[in-house]
Amino acid sequence: MLLLDNQLCFALYSTSLAMTKLYKPLLDELGLTYPQYLAMLVLWEKDGLMVSELGERLYLDSGTLTPLLKRLEVSGLISRIRAVEDERRVHITLTAAGRKLKSRAAKIPGCILEASQCSIPELTALTQQMRALRQRLVA
Fold first, then answer.
1. With b meaning 16 or more CB within 10 Å and e meaning fewer, what string describes 73-93?
2. 13-22, 74-83, 86-95, 127-136: which has the minimum mean pLDDT?
3. Is the pTM of this model over 0.90?
4. 28-106 has CATH 1.10.10.10 classification
5. Where in the sequence of the chain do the CATH 1.10.10.10 domains occur?
6. C-alpha R_g of the chain
7. Is 54 exposed, middle or buried (0-12, 13-18, 19+ CB in 10 A)?
């Protein structure tokens, strides 16, 4: 049971490293890190989220998310606006540059699909299995 290759955690970890390495040159072209890309994906789906909502979606706490968002703001991709009724609540909105970046990022999923050498149904099934495993682990 204690063989490295028998460990699900190592299979997930090493696959995550390989995936992140694959994304790096694609994201370098956009001036994004992988965590920044994930945040932008969420914001491209739904602009105007609060930091807490983004954190829930990405499974990140505010201590991790805040520096990431500050860098995106300095890059001119987002704006952070404190809510008038409660200054602890911060809304995140895409700037014009942030919205425009989406079209440049549109090629990334196809590149990942090609590099994976998997079919779309295979990747869909893997993604569903990973989501189900995550849900069971966090429950």
1. eeeebbeeeeeeeeeeebebe
2. 86-95
3. yes
4. yes
5. 28-106
6. 17
7. buried
